[in-house]
Structures are given as structure tokens and as C-alpha cells.
Amino acid sequence: MENLFVSMAAGIRSLLGSGGLSEWATDFLVMFLKLGAILVYILVSALWLVYMERKVSAYMQCRIGPNRVGPMGLLQTTADIGKLISKEFIIPKDADKKLFLLGPILIFMPPLAVFAVAPFGKGMVAIDMNIGVYYFLALASLSTVIIWMAGWASNNKYSLIGSMRVVAQMVSYEMPLILSIVGVIILTGTLNMSDIIHAQENVWFIFLQPLGFLIYLIAAVAETNRAPFDLVEGESEIICGPFTEYSGMGFAMFFLAEYANVVLVSVMATTLFLGGWLAPFGLTFIPSWIWFLLKVYLMIFLFMWFRWTYPRVRVDQLMEFGWKVLVPLSIANIFVTGIGKYLYHSLGW
Amino acid sequence: MQVKGKGLLKGLGITLKRFFKPKVTVQYPEQRLPLPDRFYGKPEFYYDKCIACNMCVNACPNKVIKLETEAVDKKKVVTRYDFDQQYCLFCGLCQEACPKDAIKFSKDFELTQYNRPDIKIKFVKPEQVEQRKEEIRKAAAEKAAAEAAKAAQEAALKPETADKEGT
Amino acid sequence: MTLKTEEFLLNLGPQHPSTHGVFRILLTLDGETVVKAVPIPGYLHRGIEKLAESRTYTQVIPYTDRLDYLAGMLMNWGYVHAVEKLMNVEVPERAEYIRVIVGELARIASHLVATGAYAADVGGLTGFIYTFRDREDIMDLFEMISGARLTPSYMRVGGVADDIPDGFIDKCRQFLDYFPTALDEYNGLITGNEIFQARTKNVAIISAEKAIEMSLSGPVLRASGVNYDLRKARPYSVYDRFDFEVPVGSKGDCFDRYYLRLLEMEQSAKIIRHALDQLPEGPIKGKVPKVIKPTAGEAYAEIESSKGIMGTYVVSDGSTNPYRVHFRRPSFVNLGYLDEMLKGWKIADAIAILGSIDIVLGEVDA
């Protein structure tokens, strides 16, 4: 079980190698398959998360949630997507047609690209990049531009307000997000995801960096535009924000991309703070990739739990909280981490 | 918004507790809640009870009920009792007004129809009217026959009174 | 360098998730800040006052259900109260008690919707579901006593339509016993939440003087610290026999307006409990002729509905139809101060402020 996916990849590689393909072509094909598998994982995961969100919210609200389509309503999202595909994609008359169409196409790009460096298990990383964390931070903030573009192209006032909020929110919360990660990087001295996980073999960084984790958690909720920081969509205020004018599959793409982003930040949180695929309490008989997914979905449950408990903050409170609380706190966290590390080294523990 | 997490944590506790508690949803088409006796659902009309007094028609705020009668042998026969349900407020004033309980609301609340004309309920069927008319005619004929026989009997005894009663 | 900025207009509604129906506010925005607000009601106008002129006195009752459709019982009551005043009808004691019971239940139901919808307005959808879950119990009680959940048409001139059915009192007591735990849940989930408090405290403060000046009523007035509840100030029906308090806010901000409703629900539950204990036997309908034909004249009567003072003005010309009926709809009057209240706040606040007034569009537009 442990090496299921790793040996699958090795098997395919040797199969292709024995088929007389050159090494270069084999590498290319295997990489292609790996990325394809990640793509499938993200899409299935997004579908599952929509279902999970509906079930979790229902259970928290004394309801049962979807239970008609398929066993336990498992095929509900599939049916929903089928419905959305069959719906008309309405383009408003005064919309910027090209940008309007480009939005839902591009929105899946940043999360997909980032997943290439995510370590799903022991040796299960598509591209073991030595600047993995940096790559994640660089690409994850790209979706801001895409959402802003979609909102601007819609030529709708609600969309405009929503997209302006996206820019303001993402810029303000990118800052504490990065600063909270810096603490981990000081401790490990590497940007490589696998190395960061290996560095947590003795103790997870959530225990060494509790404040860093908390700041990361809050900033991650804001980054994914989920309640209590869902100002971008802010259903009761600005209808659906930048996505107001999108219908059918265009809307579905944004909807699913939101979940892909949730998986993404949860993967990062797991890698950076929860010990990645490392098994706790020496329970190594459970495969590492199962541990990884377990931790990821635990994080996602946490996000959902927040969403279905808290009301939304106001836009000025959001800015105030980001700049006046989170940024100073995260800088203080870096300071304390630095001093701690220096003391640790100089005392020779 | 200071760092006072107590209220925030309490909220999380409440939602988590609810997560594991039993749910309140009723799985509707399979499971149904019992309806109270006073429920105003689909109206029911009892043709035999109706005395065509027009009370329900006058009581209705929205003029939903259309009642038409025909006089057969000096007796009112209800030939039409249309209930245009789409305008009904389900206030129950017609039921309250009826002296004979001829209109009553049942517990059936699934009143949707695919076509608009189907919403209107036509309670009186032509055969019912025919039957009623027949009954009245029959009763009248029997009565007339009985009276005629009686009159003939009496006429044989007192010819002058028979002229008056014969009509 | 100075950037040139421009204000823009935003139509909030008539189709919008949180205008509680079809209400429209024309906002002039400077970025996210409201510069000017023009409320434009009227999208749900059905002309109930005009319709009443071509209906008999009894036939108007089902229409009053559709005024404030979240507290149909209270709207029934307001109307029949005025007609009774016009006709000088004595309402039997038992009927008055039943009215108090269903009226207070309606008040709780209406406040539950207000509380839940307010939680949803500020973004917490779970609170909405919780309050609706408990409102369902009240709806079941209404269904039991009147045959309908939302539009009971239960009151009649001179009394009520039907006596209390079997099992109603037990079920009602059961609900009252359960209700405090539900209130605790709302307080934990919504009231105590710091984000909620940050969103609502000190937002759109109405001073007591201003509230009186704008003739606001109901929870909106009392949240500003004015102790004026018709049930206490000018007791009608049998309200003078119950022992209850009138909760009063201190600041007059959105939080006070929200929290006051929770406190009022507690008091309503108390009143229902008293009324159930004291419920006398007797007839449920006074001496009212079958055809209601008041002598020419006019009457104005007020009750305290869940939104404020609900007044009904009835003019009779001696026929079976009212010559004129006018409703003083509390949420319409309370809306009068909205444009001033919205000025200077953010869009998100505009929703929170509108929600705190607790309007029902059926009542605003009649």
C-alpha cells in the first residue's frame, strides 16, 4: 500500500523503457501521466468537496443535505455539473467578451500549476522543486488577477465592487500569509517541500510555530475567499461579486476553482505545519499518502466549520485586521523565531 | 475586533455539537408529518348535502365559487359548482358559512397541476345532475300519480273539490 | 497626484438576496461608502386597502394575513380590533386569552425570522436555519388552531374562529419549555460572536429624540431607550393582567435592535405561559350579528405588532362593506428614517441596517 503509487510510476517507467523508448521520451510520458493524475485528483476532489461542504453545512444546520442522487447523494455534484453544462452561457451585451470568456478558462490554471510541487506522500511528488514554497506563493496569488479580470469584464457594478474587493483583500492577506511561512523557513532553512516535511520528523511545526499556524490559517481563509472573509462573493451584499454575471459552466468553473484553492491551501498547511505525510505516534502501517489526505481533509473540514459558524466581516474591518493585527503579529513571530533559533544554536542544544 | 476569541470558540462549539445531534428534516414524499384536522387543503364538495343557499358564494372574499342552479319542479338542482382553486385564499370562510357542511376542506395539500385549466375543480358531474333531476321528477311523478289517484278517488265522491286539487 | 474619483449609482434591489422581498434602494456610492440613499418601496403593492372596500367586513380578514405575512395573527387582530371598536362589541374573555396566546406566538415567530434573517444578512447562514427550525414549532401550533401555517385568518369580529383544539395546550407548553435552550443557542452562535458584534455595535445609532420625532415604533423605538410598548402604555385586550417587562435598549444601534428582539421573545414566552395558566372557560365569540353592518361612523384602533404599532382605521357608511380601511403599517413608518441612517456607512452596513429595522415587504407596500 505504502508504495502503491510510487511503484505504479516505476512500473510504467520500466514498461515504457522495455518498449524501446528513449529515456527522454519515457521521462516526458511519465511526467505527463503524473500531472494527468494530479489533474484528475483535483477535479474529483473539487466535486467531492462541493458534496462535503453541502453535507457538513447540512449536518451543522440540523439538516441531512443531499441524499437523493446516488447512494447518500454522492452523485449530487455530478448531477449539478451536468445541469450547469446543459445551461446557456449568457454573455452580457456590454461585457468585454474576450476577457469575460477568458476568466473561467484561466481560473483553474494557478491551482493546477501549484499542485505539481505538492508532496502527496513519501516520494510522491511530481516535481521536487527546490523552491517549492516560493513557487506556491508566486502562483497562488495569480488567481487575484483572473478574478479581477472576470469581474471587470462583466461590466456590472456588483462585479466591479467584488473584484475591487478581491484585489484589496488578496494584497492585504498575501502579506501575513507569506510572513507566517517565513517562520517555518527560518527553522528549516529550505524552500523545498520534501525537505520541510523531513525536518518535521521529530516535532511538527504547528507546535513550534503555533502563532505562525494561526496566522496562516486566518490568511488562508481570506486567500480562498471563504467566510468569515468571503467579502468577494458576499452573497447578502453584492450577490455573487465578480461571478454575478456568469451562468452555466462559467459559474461552475469559478465554483470548482474555489474548492481547488481550498485544497491547495490545506495541502500547504499540511506540508508546512502538520508534518505532511509523516505518520503521527509511529502509526506507519497506514500509508503516508493516506495520512497526507487525512490531514488535508481535516484542514478542509476546519475551513468549512468556520464558514458555517461565522458571519462576514466588513471591508474596513478586514483591512484593519489584516494590516494592524496580522502583519505586526507575523513580523513579531519572525522576530521571535529568529531569536529562538539563534539561542538554540548558540546554546548548542 | 480585539483578540477575544471566547465568543468565536463558543460558536464553533455549538455548530460542532449540532453536527452530531439528530437532524430535524423530514424526508417528504416518503415521510409525512401528520396534519391537524383543521387543515385547509383541497376542497371537497358533497353534492347531496348542498341546498344551493349561496352562502358560500357570498362568504368567499375572492369569488372563487360559482354556483348555478336549475329549477326542476319548483326544486333547486345544483347544476354547477365550480371551485376556481387558483384564486382561493384557503381562509375557510365558505366552510364556516355553509349550514349543511356541504363544502369542506380535506387534508390533501398537493394541489399542483401541469395545466392551468386543470386547477379549476368542477365538482358537479352531469350524470349527478341528471340523476338528481330524475329523482325529483320521479318523486314528483309518483307524488302526482298518488295525488291523481287520490283525487280520482275523491272525485268520485266529491266532484266539486277535485277541480281545485287537480292542477 | 490626486486621483479623480467619481460617485456611482447602485440599484440595491428590487431583486437582491437581502432586501427581505422586493425592496429597492438607490444608493449613491463613493467606493464602498454610501453617500446618498433613496428607498423606493412599492414593488409588492397589491392595494389591500382598496380591495377591502369591495369586501364585507369579515372578508377583509384573510387579506390582513397578507400584510405582515410573518405575523398574520397580529394583523388579523389589528383589523378586528378596529371593527370591534366601531361596532362596540364585547369580546368574551376566553377569546381575548386565545388572542393573546396566538398573538404572542406570532410575535415570537416574527422575531425569530427577524433574528435569523439578520444573522443571514451579516453572513452567518447557520443562525438562519436554527431560528427557522424553531419557528416551525409555532407554525405547527398555528396549523393546529387555525388550519394554516402562514395565513391563519383566525380572528373574527367579536372573537376567534374556533376554540383551542385538543393537544394544543400541551404542545404549546412543550414549546415554551424548550424555547429557552433555543435562545441560548442563538445567543451563543450569533449574539456572542465577536465578528457579529463588530459588525453591528455602534452602527447606525438612532437617538431617542430622533426616534420619537420620526414616529418609529416597536423594537426599533425601544432599542433607542424609549420605553413605549402599547401593551403596557395603553393596555388593550387583557394585557393588563399579565406580568411582563418591556425590554429597552441603551444605545439604539443595530446590535440593540437585534438583541431587543431576543429579549422580547423571552417576555412573550412568559406572557403565553401566564395566559395558558389563566385561560378561562366560556364562549369564544361575542354577540355579533351574522351579517356585520356597523352604523355609519369611524374607528381607529392600535395594537402592538411585532414590528411596531399597527393601527387600523375603519370608516363605515352603514353598508356591509367598509367605506374605507387604512392600515398604519409599522415597518413602513419605520423605514422613513432609512435614508438618513444609511448615509456614511458601507454597503455591507446598508444591508445590516436594513435588516435591523426588520421590514416585511407585504406590510411596507400593503
Automatic annotation (TrEMBL), chain A:
Alphabetically ordered keywords of this record: Cell membrane, Membrane, NAD, Quinone, Translocase, Transmembrane, Transmembrane helix, Ubiquinone
Enzyme class: translocase
GO-annotated biological processes: aerobic respiration
Listed transmembrane segments: 28-51, 99-121, 133-153, 173-191, 203-222, 259-283, 289-309, 321-344
Domain of life: Bacteria
A Pfam cross-reference name: NADHdh
UniProt-listed Enzyme Commission number(s): 7.1.1.-
PROSITE patterns documented for this protein: COMPLEX1_ND1_2
MF GO annotations: NADH dehydrogenase activity; oxidoreductase activity, acting on NAD(P)H, quinone or similar compound as acceptor; quinone binding
Subcellular locations according to the entry: Cell membrane; Membrane
UniProt cross-references to HAMAP family, sorted A to Z: NDH1_NuoH
Name recorded for this polypeptide: NADH-quinone oxidoreductase subunit H
Organism: Desulforamulus aeronauticus DSM 10349
Automatic annotation (TrEMBL), chain B:
Positions annotated to bind [4Fe-4S] cluster 2: 60, 88, 91, 94
An example Gene Ontology CC term for this record: plasma membrane
Cofactor: [4Fe-4S] cluster
EC class name: translocase
GO molecular function, one term: iron ion binding
Reaction catalysed by this enzyme: a quinone + NADH + 5 H(+)(in) = a quinol + NAD(+) + 4 H(+)(out)
Entry keyword Membrane: yes
Alphabetic keyword roster: 4Fe-4S, Cell membrane, Coiled coil, Iron, Iron-sulfur, Membrane, Metal-binding, NAD, Quinone, Translocase, Ubiquinone
Textual note on the cofactor: Binds 2 [4Fe-4S] clusters per subunit.
SUPFAM superfamilies: 4Fe-4S ferredoxins (SSF54862)
Subcellular location: Cell membrane
Membrane association type: Peripheral membrane protein
Domain of life: Bacteria
Binding-site residues, [4Fe-4S] cluster 1: 50, 53, 56, 98
Pfam families: Fer4_7
Boundaries of every 4Fe-4S ferredoxin-type domain copy: 41-70, 79-108
UniProt keyword NAD present: yes
UniProt EC number: 7.1.1.-
Stretches assigned to coiled coil: 129-156
Subunit structure comment from the entry: NDH-1 is composed of 14 different subunits. Subunits NuoA, H, J, K, L, M, N constitute the membrane sector of the complex.
HAMAP family named among the record's database cross-references: NDH1_NuoI
Family of the protein in this entry: Belongs to the complex I 23 kDa subunit family.
Function: NDH-1 shuttles electrons from NADH, via FMN and iron-sulfur (Fe-S) centers, to quinones in the respiratory chain. The immediate electron acceptor for the enzyme in this species is believed to be ubiquinone. Couples the redox reaction to proton translocation (for every two electrons transferred, four hydrogen ions are translocated across the cytoplasmic membrane), and thus conserves the redox energy in a proton gradient.
Protein name, per record: NADH-quinone oxidoreductase subunit I
UniProtKB/TrEMBL annotation, chain C:
Residue stretches making up the NADH-quinone oxidoreductase subunit D domain: 121-365
Main location: membrane
One term under GO cellular component: plasma membrane
Subcellular compartments: Cell membrane
GO molecular function, one term: quinone binding
Function: NDH-1 shuttles electrons from NADH, via FMN and iron-sulfur (Fe-S) centers, to quinones in the respiratory chain. The immediate electron acceptor for the enzyme in this species is believed to be a menaquinone. Couples the redox reaction to proton translocation (for every two electrons transferred, four hydrogen ions are translocated across the cytoplasmic membrane), and thus conserves the redox energy in a proton gradient.
Record NCBIfam families: PRK06075.1 (NF004739), PRK12322.1 (NF008974)
Family statement drawn from the similarity comment of this UniProt entry: Belongs to the complex I 49 kDa subunit family.
Subunit annotation: NDH-1 is composed of 14 different subunits. Subunits NuoB, C, D, E, F, and G constitute the peripheral sector of the complex.
PANTHER family registered for this protein in UniProt: NADH DEHYDROGENASE [UBIQUINONE] IRON-SULFUR PROTEIN 2, MITOCHONDRIAL, NADH-UBIQUINONE OXIDOREDUCTASE 49 KDA SUBUNIT
UniProt protein name: NADH-quinone oxidoreductase subunit D
Protein species of origin: Desulforamulus aeronauticus DSM 10349
Gene: nuoD
